[in-house]
Design a protein that fits this description.
single chain, two-stranded antiparallel ribbon, 9 helices, 4 strands, 56% helix, elongated
Length: 159
């Protein structure tokens, strides 16, 4: 029997030059603590929030009164402030919807997209107000434009 003359290759285990997982966990914990304590301190101008939606301040304030009354319990105090905390900013966007994801719709746009009429839309809203995402029929009548989440819901239900 012929023996192959292949050199024996001993590869010593390589030691990776990297950081220890415990160090990463420690750094991540430090960042989480900093983030946790810094978030409530970050303030953004309310005007930035209004500009994000591209509506006037009066319309935006109506939206807040109608759809965010639980997030802003003291609306008079809110109106006196010039800034809003980052956490409130994010909660308001989550409630009203992201205008980049869903457009702000008017009654006319909803009717045109659903091939309906003002009369039938009004009748649906009057009969199924909560299912359409509205707190009251009066809210429907008082608004010309709807926040993205509400407009999307109106369109889905009406179509």
């Amino acid at each position: 029997m012929q023996q192959e003359n292949t050199p024996k290759q001993d590869n010593p285990p390589s030691k990776k030059q990297g950081t220890h997982p415990l160090l990463w966990a420690f750094l991540l914990a430090i960042l989480a603590i900093i983030f946790f304590f810094a978030i409530p301190k970050i303030k953004l101008p309310k005007q930035k929030l209004v500009k994000r939606y591209g509506v006037d301040k009066k319309t935006f304030n109506k939206w807040l009164e109608l759809f965010c009354h639980d997030l802003i319990p003291d609306f008079d105090a809110y109106k006196r402030k010039r800034t809003v905390s980052l956490s409130d900013y994010l909660r308001l966007i989550a409630r009203l919807g992201d205008p980049k994801a869903h457009p702000i719709l008017t009654k006319k746009e909803i009717i045109n997209r659903a091939d309906g009429s003002y009369y039938t839309l009004r009748g649906c809203v009057e009969n199924y107000t909560e299912q359409y995402g509205l707190p009251s029929v009066e809210a429907y009548f008082s608004l010309k434009k709807f926040p993205p989440n509400v407009g999307r819901k109106l369109l889905e239900m009406y179509s």
